[in-house]
């Protein structure tokens, strides 16, 4: 299944679902950020995904990072909430999603870096390299907020 992300695009299809999701900024010991190249869009993104009925939001981030990267993490903070109605994600199966994403900070506690079927590449990226990667505006916004070292989470 493929996906297309729209932002502030009047030609975007009308959403037909709202999904609660969590993502995580996971850094290695030298401050590089873990990113995945998504199989469904080819874009670089933070690991994360939709919340299940049995999840808490932090638990969703922990589960999604494990599923998508093979790493075990511990949540250490909150980057922010991202609920911009101008961001619409259209999937090839007909779902058109508005997403409510809560982005956490996390540290690695174990596991082995492993590519899942949701990504084609995983890599730790130095902050100075982020501008050279092809990623959606909303992912870049989360990374910017993280790198700003805000005292309070972004609420938007």
Automatic annotation (TrEMBL):
Q: Does the keyword Heme apply?
A: no
Domain of life of the organism encoding this protein: Bacteria
Q: Which cofactors does it use?
A: Mg(2+)
Sorted alphabetically, which PROSITE patterns does this protein's record hold? NUDIX (PS51462)
* Keywords for the protein's UniProt record, in alphabetical order: Hydrolase
Every Nudix hydrolase domain range: 17-147
Tell me yes or no: is Hydrolase among this UniProt entry's keywords: yes
What Pfam families has UniProt attached to this entry?
Answer: NUDIX (PF00293)
Q: Which protein are we looking at?
A: MutT/NUDIX-like protein
């Amino acid at each position: 299944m493929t996906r297309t992300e729209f932002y502030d695009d009047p030609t975007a299809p009308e959403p037909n679902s709202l999904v609660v999701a969590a993502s995580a900024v996971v850094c290695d010991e030298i401050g590089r950020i873990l990113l995945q190249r998504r199989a469904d869009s080819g874009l670089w993104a933070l690991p994360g995904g939709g919340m299940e009925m049995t999840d808490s939001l932090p638990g969703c981030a922990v589960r999604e990072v494990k599923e998508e990267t093979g790493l075990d993490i511990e949540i250490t903070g909150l980057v922010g909430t991202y609920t911009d109605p101008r961001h619409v994600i259209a999937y090839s199966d007909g779902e058109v999603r508005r997403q409510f994403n809560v982005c956490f900070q996390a540290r690695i506690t174990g596991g082995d870096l492993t590519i899942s079927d949701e990504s084609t590449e995983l890599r730790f990226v130095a902050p100075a390299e982020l501008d050279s990667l092809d990623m959606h505006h909303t992912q870049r916004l989360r990374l910017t907020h993280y790198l700003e070292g805000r005292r309070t989470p972004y609420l938007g």
